[in-house]
Amino acid sequence: KGHGMIGNIYSMGLALQALGATSKFYAPREWDCAQAFSVVYGHNYQQPMAIAQVLPALVGKSYLEAAGLDCAANTGTSQSLQLPLTPELGTTGVHRGMAAAAQSHDGPRGTVPGTHAAVLAAPITVSYSIINKLQGSHFDYTISVSVPGGSTLLKVLQVAEKEKPNIFSFQTEQTSWGPMVISIHGLAANSDDRTYWQFLSSGDALQEGVGTYKPQDGEHIQAVFSTY
């Protein structure tokens, strides 16, 4: 149903490792691994945690095999750990993410290679709504903000808060997967109540966090106070 997606893009790494390590448990049923790996190849992974989980699967390994590694016998460790360049991988997915990360050290974002002149991205307009119909005093607020093209959703939230701090104030908590929004408009998520802030676009839950997701011009993002 997910066209190769297992859970969401964050769970793919461990899911691929588990399926690769336990094939004898679902044999003779065939698993269409190519479909799942195409999802991974097409995604630009940025968080170190996500990359660390998906890389073993890409080389046909799993964390379960780490205990059996003989590091002393590997004289060419750095070379042996390089991800093989195959036609299927090319420069997509993880490689593209790594290339982008490497290029980011060449100059500030938005600069042209070989020059020092910054090229500012054209601004885009994003609609942002915060909705609570679950607890306390219900609210539904919407704002339209302008941010540079290529900005993350976190930037949209920051601009909205700057323009109307009494309405769009928010708090984040740093996690190994990046910043996670834990409170909006003074309403905080609570694990005891199994509540959280869910971000959607066109009614579909975002597959990335606010620190990596990049809205498009004219997109409408909704933050909905939800339960799980």
UniProtKB/TrEMBL annotation:
Its main location: secreted. Keywords: Cobalt, Cobalt transport, Ion transport, Secreted, Signal, Transport. GO terms for molecular function: cobalamin binding. Residues 150-222 form the Transcobalamin-like C-terminal domain. The keyword Transport applies. It is found in: Secreted. It comes from the Eukaryota. One of its GO terms (biological process) is cobalt ion transport. Cyanocob(III)alamin binds at N8, Q53, L206, Y228. GO terms for cellular component: extracellular space. It holds the Pfam family DUF4430. The keyword Ion transport applies. InterPro entries: Cbl-bd_prot, Cobalamin_Transport, Transcobalamin-like_C. Signal peptide: none annotated. Belongs to the eukaryotic cobalamin transport proteins family. This is IF factor. It comes from Grus americana (Whooping crane).
